[in-house]
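re: ur question from yesterday

yeah so i grabbed the chain u mentioned. its 135 aa long if i counted rite. heres the sequnce exactly as i have it in my notes:
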Amino acid sequence: MRIVIISAPAQRKPPPDYVTALQKGMASMGHQVDILDAWTEDGFRLPSYEYIAVAAEQISLFGGKMPTALPKILSAGTGVGGKRGAAFLRKTGPFNGKALSNLMRAMEKEGMLINWSDIILNPPHAEALGKRIGA
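ran it thru and got these structure tokens back, copy pasting raw so excuse formatting
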């Protein structure tokens, strides 16, 4: 299966280690996995993937807000409606549930079908979660 992981860290930086661990876990199950950076990519390649996973971080400790680059990349990829997807959030504070809900809401707003969501604790946990995609 062709899978894309949209990396949406709180600040503009290269994909964090938990995103590459998630990719490693998915690739070990035989999937073709690419990583797109929400801050630098435009999102026009999203319709070519069968499954879209978003790995994000909340901007603030208490607000549960998502990075501003995330809605931009999701809305630019016309044709993502009806695609299956997963929402992953890195554990950063006490209000992770609210942030995960906001992440799923942003994805569903574009018409995606979220069939899995989870909070990533660390890179080994991310790799284990990646191995469960498509299993």
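noticed a couple things. The mean pLDDT is 89. also DSSP finds four helices and five strands in the chain.
anyway ttyl
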